[in-house]
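Ops channel
N.P.: pipeline sanity check, posting one input/output pair.
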């Protein structure tokens, strides 16, 4: 009679019976550990591991007009700036002045936003000045590089919030024709937004939505823990922002 030894995962590998790190809720062996992987599995925290995780989510989800220079892991021949949204909601643009812009709020995206941005950034590092990348491939095929591999992970974002989209068009001359109309339309859709600053405060923004102003604050804690903490504060009548 022969004995079958149980297979144990090699150190550093994911146990096939454990939950998949992508956050899909499936076991690893039935998700990204399956032959060929599960390219369509939703990555619930695509920017995990980056010091800029919360800011990236804020810029992706609700900040209308903002930019931030990116600190690349490897030197590039041009400056690269992350932007909330670009003209025509393009994925990336290399301006004639050789500055590359990467858009967060785009027309289409895959189940892994980090991979989408990694593809856009890879394109922007080698594209010719004056080029536009309308969209990136949203399938699991092709380049699998993610944003975490291209940036210095511990570097936070230095975000500049803009009152409009004038930064779309460099130079001092005002735009005309179709460019002017597009800029005017984009500016009209902006909700006034200001960053909230202070000790220990990051990725928090006041948003004037008309009748009421909202505080939108991206937190790094798991949702269940954060809601439980807020419930305890509310029970003690301490869930407020202080005096006027």
């Amino acid at each position: 009679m022969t004995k079958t030894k149980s297979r144990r995962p090699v150190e550093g590998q994911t146990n096939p019976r454990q939950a998949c790190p992508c956050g899909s809720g499936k076991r690893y062996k039935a998700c990204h550990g399956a032959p060929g992987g599960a390219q369509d599995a939703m990555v619930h925290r695509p920017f995990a591991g980056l010091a800029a995780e919360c800011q990236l989510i804020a810029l992706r989800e609700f900040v209308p007009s903002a930019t931030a220079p990116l600190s690349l892991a490897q030197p590039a021949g041009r400056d690269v700036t992350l932007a909330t949204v670009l003209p025509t909601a393009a994925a990336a643009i290399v301006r004639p002045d050789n500055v590359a812009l990467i858009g967060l709020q785009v027309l289409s995206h895959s189940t892994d936003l980090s991979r989408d941005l990694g593809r856009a950034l890879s394109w922007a590092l080698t594209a010719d000045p004056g080029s536009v990348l309308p969209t990136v491939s949203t399938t699991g095929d092709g380049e699998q590089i993610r944003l975490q591999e291209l940036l210095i992970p511990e570097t936070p974002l230095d975000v500049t919030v803009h009152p409009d989209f004038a930064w779309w068009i460099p130079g001092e001359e005002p735009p005309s024709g179709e460019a002017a109309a597009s800029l005017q339309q984009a500016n009209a859709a902006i909700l006034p937004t200001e960053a909230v600053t202070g000790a220990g405060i990051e990725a928090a923004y006041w948003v004037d939505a008309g009748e009421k102003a909202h505080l939108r604050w991206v937190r790094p804690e798991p949702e269940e823990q954060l809601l439980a903490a807020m419930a305890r504060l509310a029970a003690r009548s301490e869930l407020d922002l202080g005096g006027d």
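N.P.: looks fine end to end. Residues 89 and 224 are 33 Å apart (CA to CA).
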